[in-house]
Specification:
heterodimer; A: 317 residues; alpha/beta; Alpha-Beta Plaits; 2 domains; 27% strand; B: 271 residues; mainly alpha; 0% strand; globular
Chain lengths: 317, 271
């Protein structure tokens, strides 16, 4: 479906994307990274707005830049707000569908149907300037989906939305990914770029983490967790006698470093948190230690992202 | 799910591309119907007539027809068309970049081409409409004899001026989108009003030579003109002049489309 091989994009002296190699099949994929990481540049390359300086991109087996066969099958919802304020959502989406090669009647039908689907049926004749950001975001989504793409690329689609609008749009995108009545002819691929991990987590997407233009990790959430598990994890143990506990666990190979914080906290860095947890349990029983709390570093995607970023920066290895 | 083939196929690409260009033209014309643009258009319509009225009042023995035609030609197919196209054609790409709509168009098949061709059509339609109204009002105010054929001739010159010069301004619009207006003024001065008045091969590729030659031909002025002025006129028949303008416009437009199709506008948030 989508293949990038050693893709690099340079703007003058600035590297937008640096030697990215990744293959994405059908299904949902999340592209994660902080602001300025190179997500938008990568999406620009995938959606045929930009040419790679080096490397090769294939979307549906073909080069996307200036290729109408590929562009016909791509729907793109950019991060930037639409400043086309006088047009109504109906006019805007019809316009975009016509640019995809549909006649006026087909464009009108598709635009109206898609605007209904995204929940803008009531507001499709109001000027975009009078709509809330959430509604304009829906109009952008409708514009990206109305021509029936096989690959839907969304750049920060939930940015700046209130929780209710965010929840609605996540549901909408999820439905697109599984719905068979969206006018496409084959398996669909969804790519969502975000700097907020919980947004991508909610889509149950495969992950690719980008930082400084480099792809620092990719795979399923589990695969990335396994990768992260190979990195030292800090375990915080709160007990009545942390020094005795330290003596009990320091004989194991699982503990890489230790430090004390205050009178009751022991922090242990380990690459084998399960083994360490078992050792703590045994020590608590055998040495009659009152262990009140054992907590690991954040294992949510937020935590994983933060640790991958630290790993990439050479911190904590 | 859609029936197979419901997506426009390659076979329907050309009609699809023409439809896309027409969609852009229609959308751009809708944008042009704003208070500010209508005010500018109104000024464009009134200004030549106001000049002709002022000249007519100062001319004690009435305004000579040939002089009136020459003045209206300078005011309308030259000045009004030029200004109208500067406003409508130059921001073809810059406007889309500023509005954040460029990305939406660039990811459509043939979107870049449709944007330029559609904006070109809109600019020609808008400018020609304004300029033809301006010419008609100016001819009426000048009080010349046989006004209807005169308006017809000036209308044809307006159309040809718009067709040729909109294509000329398409180049700065795609090469220097953020400085397109300044670049286009420079192009107009250097190409149309400097090179166009050099009696050499270089002026053959200018719209101004063709328009002047058509005016002289259609007004049957050639024999009256001093020999020095005749050097600034191409003696070939009208169909040659008209064909040359269309050929020039086609070449310029194709080059502009190719440049735009090759251009990349990096996401400013990333770099």
């Amino acid at each position: 479906m989508l293949s990038l091989t050693h893709v690099t994009k340079v703007f003058g002296s600035v590297i937008g994307v640096n030697d990215v190699t990744v293959d994405l099949g059908s299904g949902a994929h999340g592209l994660l990274g902080p602001n300025g990481a190179g997500k938008t540049t990568l999406l620009g390359l995938i959606t045929g707005q930009l040419r790679p300086t080096m490397g090769q991109i294939r979307v549906f087996g073909e080069r996307p830049f200036g290729n109408p066969r590929v562009l016909q099958r791509i729907g793109f919802c950019p991060a930037a707000d639409i400043l086309e304020r006088r047009a109504t959502p109906r006019e805007w989406v019809r316009y975009l569908v016509r640019l995809s090669g549909f006649g006026p009647r087909a464009a009108a039908e598709r635009a109206d149907r898609e605007l209904d689907r995204v929940g803008l049926g009531e507001a499709m004749d109001r000027p975009l300037s009078t709509l809330s950001k959430g509604m304009r975001q829906r109009a952008k989504l409708a514009g990206a989906m109305a021509h029936g793409p096989d690959l839907l690329v969304l750049d920060e689609p939930f940015d700046g939305l209130d929780p209710v609008a965010r929840h609605d749009l996540v549901g909408l995108v999820q439905r697109w990914a599984v719905d068979s009545d969206t006018g496409t002819s084959g398996p669909r691929t969804l790519i969502v770029a975000s700097h907020l991990l919980h947004e991508v987590e909610a889509l149950h997407a495969g992950l690719a983490v980008i930082l400084g233009g480099r792809l620092v990790a990719s795979g399923t959430a589990e695969e990335i967790r396994d990768m992260v598990d190979a990195m030292p994890t800090e375990i915080r143990i709160r007990c009545d006698a942390p020094r005795r506990l330290a003596e009990a666990v320091c004989d194991t190979t699982s503990a890489e470093s230790m430090r004390f914080e205050g009178d009751d906290l022991l922090v242990v860095a380990t690459r084998q948190p399960r083994a360490l947890a078992e050792r703590i349990g045994r020590a608590a029983v055998e040495d009659r230690l009152a262990v009140r709390e054992v907590s690991a570093a954040d294992q949510s995607l937020e935590g994983i992202f933060g640790r991958l970023v630290r790993l990439h920066r050479g911190v904590g290895s | 799910m859609n029936a197979p083939g419901s997506r426009p196929s390659d076979r329907s690409r050309w009609p699809g591309e023409i439809g896309a260009a027409l969609a852009v033209a229609s959308f751009q014309l809708g944008r042009m119907v704003s208070r500010q643009r209508l005010l500018l258009a109104g000024l464009g319509v009134i200004f030549p007539a106001a000049v002709m009225l002022a000249v007519r009042r100062t001319a004690a023995l009435g305004l000579d027809r040939d002089l009136a035609v020459a003045m209206i030609y300078a005011l309308v197919p030259e000045a009004v068309c030029m200004l109208g196209l500067l406003v409508t054609m130059c921001p073809a790409v810059a406007d889309e970049l500023e509005r954040g709509t460029w990305i939406h168009l660039a990811v459509r098949p043939g979107g870049r081409r449709a944007l330029l061709v559609g904006t070109y059509l809109a600019a020609v339609i808008w400018t020609s409409t304004v300029a033809i109204l301006a010419a008609a009002l100016a001819v009426f105010v000048a009080g010349v004899s046989k006004p209807v054929p005169l308006v017809g001739m000036l209308g044809a010159l307006v159309l040809l001026s718009s067709v040729g010069r909109a294509a000329l301004f398409a180049l700065p619009a795609v090469i220097l989108p953020k400085r397109a207006l300044v670049a286009s003024v420079g192009v107009a001065l250097v190409v149309e009003y400097l090179a166009g008045f050099i009696p050499a091969v270089v002026n053959q590729a200018t719209v101004s030579l063709r328009l002047r030659s058509l005016l002289v031909s259609w007004m049957s002025w050639r024999r009256q003109l001093p020999i020095e002025i005749q050097l600034l006129i191409d003696p070939q028949p009208a169909w040659v002049q008209i064909s040359a303008i269309f050929a020039l416009a086609a070449v310029l437009l194709v080059v502009a489309v190719k440049i735009l199709e090759y251009r990349q506008f990096p996401p400013s948030t990333e770099i």
